[in-house]
Amino acid sequence: MIRSLINIISWRAFLLVLLTLVLVQADDFVISDVKIAVTTSDSVRKLYESIPYPSSFDKPIQLTSGDDFKMIFVVNDKQTQKGVQPHQAFLTLTSEKNGNQIPIIIRVRENGKSKVELDMKSAPDELLSSPGNYSLDLIIGTFSYNDPLKYHVATLEIDVPIQSSGHSPVVYGPKPEIHHIFRPDEKLPPIWLSYSFVAIVLIPWVFLIGAWACIGVNVSLLARAPEPSLMSILFLGSLLAIEILFYNYWTHLNIFQTLTWLTGLSIVAFITGQKALSDVQKWRSLGLR
């Protein structure tokens, strides 16, 4: 019996503490240091007033073409009087003629200070197309408080020429066709230029054959020395294969394929060339040259 009574008292104490915390969190916040200003397109100040919260500005604020409306304020906690940053804050312009609302998002800093601006040069189309009186209200809400704050700041008198776009903008619908322009293919060089480089590539072979003809080539050694002749043939064949590889690179091979083949052929040319030169030196020492 006593244990049950203690449990009931404990639950009641817990609920009392929880209710106290909820009531503390339910305290709302207040607005302070409300200032409004209106400047013209020539940077001439038409209006600058401080408004004590929760009072409203008693006269309609006239905004014409080129005017710039600014408003600054501070959001404070009612209990601590410290600045707070709400989760949502925005101004609403409610038309007294048709009831349409135009929201303006506000960014509030961590210290509660904020600044909002309405430039008539870049005002929303809904505002410019329907001039008249608008109720300017500040709405602030956050998760820490149960009820949002709605504060009527002033009445704006929009006095601008009616701007009609002529037709309603289409938000969803077919878009204009995109015509892709691709870069034209690169032009090949003239045929005479290609043949000129072919001739330049073949000229060393012409000089090689001419040099052999001048100094004399002992072809009979190739028949008498089968092993050395094989190395010489492989060396000359590797040089010819490298030339053919360069031709294939010009026509269809890419750089990676060419380097792969060139690495293998270079190794073969180096080994066979070194052996062929050693054989030539041996022939000269034997007087066979």
UniProtKB/TrEMBL annotation:
It comes from Gigaspora rosea. It is a multi-pass membrane protein. Subunit of the oligosaccharyl transferase (OST) complex that catalyzes the initial transfer of a defined glycan (Glc(3)Man(9)GlcNAc(2) in eukaryotes) from the lipid carrier dolichol-pyrophosphate to an asparagine residue within an Asn-X-Ser/Thr consensus motif in nascent polypeptide chains, the first step in protein N-glycosylation. N-glycosylation occurs cotranslationally and the complex associates with the Sec61 complex at the channel-forming translocon complex that mediates protein translocation across the endoplasmic reticulum (ER). All subunits are required for a maximal enzyme activity. This is Ribophorin II. It is found in: Endoplasmic reticulum membrane. The chain crosses the membrane at residues 192-217, 229-249. Keywords: Endoplasmic reticulum, Membrane, Signal, Transferase, Transmembrane, Transmembrane helix. Pathway: Protein modification; protein glycosylation. Residues 1-26 form the signal peptide. Residues 33-158 form the Ribophorin II third domain. InterPro entries: Ribophorin_II_3rd, Ribophorin_II_C, Swp1. It comes from the Eukaryota. Residues 182-284 form the Ribophorin II C-terminal domain. GO terms for molecular function: transferase activity. The keyword Transmembrane helix applies. GO terms for biological process: protein N-linked glycosylation. Belongs to the SWP1 family. One of its GO terms (cellular component) is oligosaccharyltransferase complex.
